[in-house]
Amino acid sequence: MKALRSIIDKYKPLFERGGKYEKFKPIFETFETFLYVPAVTTPLKGTQIRDAIDLKRLMMTVIIAMLPALIFGMWNIGHQHFLTIGGDAGFWDQFFVGLKVILPIIIVTYAAGLGTEFVFAIIRGHGGLNEGFLVTGILIPLIVPPTIPLWQVALATIFAVAIGKEVFGGTGMNILNVALTARAFLYFAYPSQISGDVWTYLGDKTPIDGFSGATPLAVAYEASGSGNSVVETLANANSVLGEGFYALQNLFMGYIPGSIGETSAFWILIGGLILILTGVASWKVMISVFAGAYVMGLGFNAIGANEYMIMPAHYHLVLGGLAFGAVFMATDPVTAAQTETGKWIYGFMIGILTVLIRVVNPAYPEGIMLAILLMNVFAPLIDFYVVKANKNRRIKRATTI
Amino acid sequence: MSKNLKLRRGFDIKLAGRAQKKVSEVEVPETYALKPTDFIGIKRPKLMVAEGDKVKAGTPLLYCKLMDRVKYCSPVSGEVIEIRRGPKRKLLEVVISADGKMEHETVEKVAISELKKMSRETLVDILLTNGVWPNIIQRPYGVVASPEESPKSIFISAFDNSPLAPDYDFLFNGEENYFQAGVEVLRKFTTGKIHVSIDGKAEVSKVFSHTKNVELHKFTGPHPSGNVGVQIHHLDPVNKDDLVWTVNPYGVIQMGKLFLEGQYDASAVIAVAGSEVKEPGYFKTYKGANIQSFIKNNLKQNNVRIISGNVLTGERIDNNGYLGFYHNLITVIPEGDKYDMFGWILPTVSTLSFQRAFGLFSFLNKKKEFVLDTNMKGEKRTFVQTGVFEKVTPMDILPTYLLKSILAEDYDEMEELGIYEVIEEDLALCEFVDVSKHNIQAILRNGLELIQNS
């Protein structure tokens, strides 16, 4: 290990100020700090010891929390693939089909994103890579359909990193969630590749007769005018693929087509549990998103103007990307509300808006993406009032005594 | 009204090397120093002595140009052997070689009962000219108090629960009479109350529990509940245009001694603690002592950082350095000037974290005493994580917003967010837990200076 250190020390001067490759210091620094925590010590005055945590470890914890959903997603791509083409396959066959699909997406996302970050770091001439992208680089593959063209992934990632984050100053400065910016870019720039029959990876095979690519959310929305209950419609939908294919239990476990990592509420909640136990993400945001969605669902139950509205409220919690959004997207500390009171309001509003968009707006079957992006924009406003309340308490204190 | 307050937020950093409760004898240090840099906000200190001058304990050595009545005095009798200056001739240390005779400048002795009859002006004058005054710190800003002003109340925190802090009841054992006398002096300075806060968890404090003419409060909870700033926030907060004073018990006792014994007594019991000290313990010495005597043959290894004060707010000093004016603790911990391979992801039980992110297992062992070095343990980043500073700040203050307002130099915002209520020590834990490794105390001081000089 000493040898490695001495190699690094040997080449380090080349990247320092005045060195031959001075411009590429951010890249060198990124790799060096990946291998070693720097030997920098605390200032002479002030706190002389520091907590063992740093941003790298924080971000790695998020990545670890995403692994259950990612691994399930890999398997599920293969599972859906063989179900839909009518073939039989074992666990590993299914898993490898998924791996073959998802690995290129992850690689392309990282390459495009890190490339963009490095370009900005070199232009700015300071700082290494911000660890934030390590998380974004996994998030983006998890929220796209398995059939997404790779060039679109690259384009969306570059757009999101450059316009969504770097122009604001990089990690910690962005207003919108970076991964969702990529998703929104795809949604509005290439709608045909991110809606319709894109949720099942078929390869060059053809699906069996009677297969419909409609997602549970689309099925639920279409049921609203039909006079049949949504629950029944879901249970009967796509029955060529299996009895009760869109039934509640399947929806919860995620054995359905959809975005790569978004389908299984179960595995996402395992990740959520990791985030809560490690204290890395705000449990307040997670709980309040679910609470908001449930309350809005109950509200629609009370209105009951169509079948979709009277769908049991808990269905909303397992449908679509709500769980994924609540656990991994809404909790992004940079774009969420930053005050503790604000987090409750922010999460609750996301839940409400998601269900509102789903049920009422015909253009968007899924609401979580737009709900989170919208609340990202409003988060500073929520915080503004929470901070103002803090200031007012101080003023009040001064005047009453 | 006495209050009994339980604070939940905060964090006790448990470090190895706590001082054994026993006062040990060592070679008496030969030199002592007064360091103007110990006094925050001191501008252009003016020397009153030159190298070679003979001084007594209590002889004024220098004063601050802005508050020329406040004299900073020699802790021991002897000869001024060196006046050390830094870049731009900044005055760093006035070094005195002790003659071992301990001659004192003297003032008239007064009985406690007489103190009440003395005028405020007389008391102020005696405190100012005899070196005791700098113990009085004013809030806002945490600087030496101005003798021309009257605070709305005065606060004394009678315990310290910062890492490895000495036990005040042990330090000040048997000095309750002086403490009471000091309180009587302080009562002359304010029309408000004198608040003394004791540790709610500890046994009844012999020194402080029976103090008369004060409001006695109990604070329970993890550090920083022992910080006087936190106590002020819960007892009688500093609003805009408010002025309060704080005095460390050592300062109160020194005031008492000045009047009861008629001399400036800079003697002090100090703790020498930390994982790298062979035999952590207490020593009797004088303020400003050269620390060599305490660490000679008493260190486990040489790559160490010696800190005057505690690990959260202290200052690194040389192994030939001097104890700070406000400090009663020398902490010695390992330097962290080494690379740590994959240190950002490998699971660890040996380093401490307030948090529980992947691989940080210190939370599983709440009793363990840690050996922590001075490594930053990560690189500086922008503010990312939220909600953590609040968990270690038991006040109705939003540290992140306050810090951002300072960075933006937004004066109104700083004021509205409560900058007057905090000084460095109150946000020291934020600096410890910060994922993004900001130097929060330095940022805060910068903000305080901006406001003070505006």
Fraction in helix of chain B? 10-25%
Q: Could you tell me the strand content of chain A as a percent range?
A: under 5%
Overall number of strands of chain A: 1
CATH topology of the largest domain in chain B: Rossmann fold
Fold and architecture overview:
The complex is a heterodimer of chains A (about 400) and B (about 450). In chain A, helix 12 packs antiparallel against helix 14. The mean pLDDT of chain A is about 90. With about 400 residues, chain A is mainly alpha-helical. Chain A starts with a helix and ends with a helix. Chain A contains 16 helices and one strand. Among the domains of chain A are: about 55-195; about 280-390, no CATH class. Chain A is about 65% helix and about 0% strand. Chain A has helices spanning about 1-15, 25-35, 55-85, 90-125, 130-140, 150-165, 180-190, 215-225, 230-235, 250-255, 265-275, 285-305, 315-320, 320-330, 340-360, 370-400; one strand at about 35. The longest helix of chain A has about 35 residues, at about 90-125. With about 450 residues, chain B is α/β, with parallel strands linked by helices. Chain B folds into four domains: about 5-10 and about 105-260, Rossmann fold, CATH 3.40.50; about 25-100, Beta Barrel (OB fold (Dihydrolipoamide Acetyltransferase, E2P)); about 270-335; about 375-450, no CATH class. In chain B, the strands form four sheets. A seven-stranded mixed sheet of chain B has the order 1-14-13-12-15-10-11, with helices on both faces. In chain B, strands 2-17-16-20-18-19 form a six-stranded mixed sheet, with no helix packed on it. In chain B, strand 6 and strand 7 form a beta hairpin. In chain B, helix 4 crosses helix 6 (about 250-260). Chain B is globular, with a radius of gyration of 22 Å. The model of chain B has no long low-confidence stretch (mean pLDDT about 95). Classes of the chains: A mainly alpha (about 400), B alpha/beta (about 450). Chains A and B meet through strand 1, helix 3 and helix 16 of A and strand 21, helix 11 and helix 12 of B.
